[in-house]
UniProtKB/TrEMBL annotation:
Organism: Lutibacter aestuarii
Protein name per UniProt: IMPACT family protein
Xref: Gene3D superfamilies: Impact, N-terminal domain (3.30.230.30)
Classification via Pfam families: Impact_N
Residue intervals of the Impact N-terminal domain: 30-134
Highest taxon of source: Bacteria
Family as reported in the entry's similarity comment: Belongs to the IMPACT family.
Amino acid sequence: MCILKLCNILEKDTYKTIDVAKGEALYKEKGSKFIGYVFPVTSEDEIKECIERVKKKHHTARHWCYAWQLGVENLQYRVNDDGEPNNSAGQPIYGQILSKELTNILVIVVRYFGGTKLGVGGLINAYKTAAKLILDEAEIVVKTIDIHFQLIFEYQYMNKVMRIIKEENLEILNQKMELNCDFIISVRKKNSQKVKDRFEDLRCLNIKEV
């Protein structure tokens, strides 16, 4: 059900994520402490850096379990139990990511062992709860899925190009003014074909998706 909801969001060319990292959310169970963190991420390199940062901060903890999801159309995800019984930590954390329909996100739950074993059911509840607590604190934002186009044209056609950019409220990500003008623009996915057609109708530039 959660996956279906996420797919519906993506069909509308928007997705949910967070802009700002949050921590710490604390959950206690029979002496064990579970501390939740959440980070906005866009690559596996960023994920590794965040995990190492949390491990360094909590170097005396017993477990550093996590789940992440990346992408907006081709989704990737990973869960890690970090020594806890299979599917007792990473998967419950990931379930909370899915329940809030989020992507480009990493949730880490650090465990300090309190001396009493919780059993698989207890662990599932603890990691799920810690993940939910930190995600409830995070500010969720809705972003658009954007397509990037490169425009190459002669300077004499600048006014025609800029007129479309202004009328369509497009963002210029990069521009070079040399022998020709070279723009990289960002277009919301649902408007991309219309915008591409408008530029092609000018017949004075080359446009391609990048």
